[in-house]
Amino acid sequence: MRSHFKLFIFLVLISQGRSVGTQFLSIPPSAGDLIVFNSPWRNPAVLDQLNKASELGLAYGNWLAGLQSVGFRWKGRVKNGSGGIDIRYAGLNDLELRPNKPTSKPLARYAAYGISARGIYSWRKNSFDFGLGLQLVNFQIYQKRTHGIALDLGLGWNIRDEIRINLSALNLGKMSKMISESPNLPQRVISSAIYHKSNYVLFCAVESNSLVKNPIIYGGGNGQYKNMIFGFTAMTSKGVKAISGGVGIQFGIYSVTYGFQWGDQHLGMPQIIDISIRLP
Q: Are 192 and 205 in contact (CB under 8 A)?
């Protein structure tokens, strides 16, 4: 019964219409993305590794209805700009196939999962930051597979020392056919206005997602105190409200970060934990 419920939720959450599983790309891959809204995952232009040490990170999380995610990332300086690599997995591994009549054993066990590998590069020119990302996507459910490629574009404009505007367009691409149709990628356009003062940031943002009928509104902030970072984001759309946030602590070259999301869907509380290390 539990496996049937998980399959139902999985299909409802990420298989609307012809989207067939690609909505996993809209799930934050790390705890840092739950703490800091304006992260490279939402806008490749904000990746800034100039005069910073390279970093390796590993993330593990449980999303709604038991969806598990694992992510690996690297970011560092590349020539006169900043580069990053993100590899992630999200899926359900214990689904059971059963007939209509009650049985003690399932006919088969199977998984539904998505995998993506993304490379990003950002650079700065005057008061503007530019970002470019290229992502390979693969998704499988039952014995059916689909794959594709997506492009991410990002722009940041420092209007004043304390005010910044960010704009990004994500998942611009195409998937191969799955059965008879090609799944749609969750194409996203996100714009945000940011006010930052000292170690604290406040922001508001709006997102248009091709797989969601109504716009998504965000608001929140994040900050840093000594070796600790923290932040929260409130999100609302028609019929859905959620709050995400978390905290991170740095111990020398090591960092541990925890993020969560709580919503009014009563489907559980997603949680993600990151462990990262700065390289010499």
A: yes
